[in-house]
Amino acid sequence: MINVIGLGYIGLPTALMMAAHGVEVIGTDYNKELVNTLNAGKTTFKEEGMDRLFDQAVDGGIKFSTEYQVTDIYIISVPTPYDEFSKKVDTKYVKAAVKSVMEVCTKGAIVVIESTIAPGTIDKHVRPIVEANGFTIGEDLNLVHAPERIIPGNMVYELLNNNRTIGADDIVIGEKIKELYGSFCQGEIVVTDIRTAEMTKVVENTFRDINIAYANELAKICRSDDMDVYEIIKIANMHPRVNILTPGPGVGGHCISVDPWFLVGDYPGLANIVLAARKINDSMPEFVLERMHEIMKDTGMTDVSRVGLYGLAYKENVDDMRESPTLQILNSMDKHLSGNLVKVYDPYIKKDVVPNQLHDLDDFLNSIDFVVLLVGHNEIKESMYKLKGKVVLDTRHICELEGTYGL
Ligand code: SAJ
């Protein structure tokens, strides 16, 4: 039996996928409301294919609880934010989960950390907890790192098809966990040591952050000299070895905007490109605001309360707004509006999450003259024609209406 701990964006689909493939699974989360929702037969976030997977997992006997269980294998999938001050990984949730596992687990257990962690985290923060509880690692308990790699928006497909990494001290234990993930994963599963697995995951997300930063920096350079960044990227990408990503309003989500900081925090003075990329991506919401004010000036608009933000999630077709660039833009605009709250539209976000500011599409459009397009949800793309007659700043390059402004 497997106990998956943390039923969020990664833990839940992982637990469901295993249960749907014949593994006996109990999912644990400290959030009672979330566990009650799952026990009532409902999923907790939108994702392509999740509802079907949920039904298959229920048929496979999955159980949800707030209690930790006595099992052979524990999979910990809890958030790992970074500490704003030190820039290092904040392991408080991982440590709390490991401590709780220690209270119930018995000899022979394997504890797998799925959460993204900085290289050396298991050595520095997890091993001491296990040893303090009287277990000898390698003899009566084993540790493994199996970082997740799935992309929100395509999680179910990627869980099934992505290659994976398993880091273990002992090859036999690594192979055992490989077999577990192999129950559903059709990709290649590489077994390596723990530190290599930790570093590899952080390196992957940092690679993407740096590449997005390059596209964003190009957008700024091209804007400063009146060149069309999208046309330039399109042509440059026709080169067989060039693949520039797409500029946007900034990098959100709980992964790419967080994980590169682990390298900056642990390797100050060495992670220079990494730091520069983080700064460029973090500066994009401010760049969007500057662009917005420029366009208001050009079009003779003076009333910021007539500007609306289209899209609140951190990217297209997900309902997750963690670290969303729109939140930064919204906060900054609200400060200048003294009570006249900025209007927002996002079909993926529940109204009570941002009370008073999220509107139905028609209300939203009736109360604004200027739309800042921040997310390319399919629903938003399909309703684009409704923006005709408005001033549009398109930060995602998805609007084909004539007169649309770009980054
Ligand atoms: N973005 C751009 N331009 C682009 C691509 C993305 O501005 O060309 C923005 C998005 O709008 C979003 C942010 O970057 O705000 C991140 O989005 P994303 O789709 O690049 O990545 P995530 O954060 O949703 O998921 C990433 C993935 N990592 C990589 O692709 C290397 C995923 O595979 C990981 O599992 C996930 O992080 C994670 O959980 O670590």
From TrEMBL:
Pfam families: UDPG_MGDP_dh, UDPG_MGDP_dh_C, UDPG_MGDP_dh_N. It comes from the Bacteria. SMART domains: UDPG_MGDP_dh_C (SM00984). InterPro entries: 6-PGluconate_DH-like_C_sf, NAD(P)-bd_dom_sf, UDP-Glc/GDP-Man, UDP-Glc/GDP-Man_DH_C, UDP-Glc/GDP-Man_DH_C_sf, UDP-Glc/GDP-Man_DH_dimer, UDP-Glc/GDP-Man_DH_N, UDP_ManNAc/GlcNAc_DH. Keywords: NAD, Oxidoreductase. GO terms for molecular function: NAD binding; oxidoreductase activity, acting on the CH-CH group of donors, NAD or NADP as acceptor; oxidoreductase activity, acting on the CH-OH group of donors, NAD or NADP as acceptor. Residues 308-401 form the UDP-glucose/GDP-mannose dehydrogenase C-terminal domain. GO terms for biological process: polysaccharide biosynthetic process. Belongs to the UDP-glucose/GDP-mannose dehydrogenase family. This is Nucleotide sugar dehydrogenase. It comes from Aminipila terrae.
